[in-house]
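Quick question, first post here. What does this chain look like in 3D?
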Amino acid sequence: MSAGVVSLAVVGSGLYVYLQRDKLVDSIKSQVLKSVTGSLPGLVDSKLPGTTGGALPGVKAIPGVPKGLGLPGF
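> Answer (accepted):
Ran it through. Tokens below.
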């Protein structure tokens, strides 16, 4: 008897989670975004530089060489 009750409880809870999975996932996503969003402005302001340099540090452009790959169409 008790094994049947436990089996029904497991199947019932699994069915509930399966049917409500979209709502549960959205709820968890919103909770995670709320907790992460609060710390982002401080991280972004302090970690990102105001400007960026060239692709390779210390390499200067060569006069007469086109920018990019130097290939037609690129």
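The CA atoms of residues 61 and 73 lie 20 Å apart.
The radius of gyration is 28 Å.
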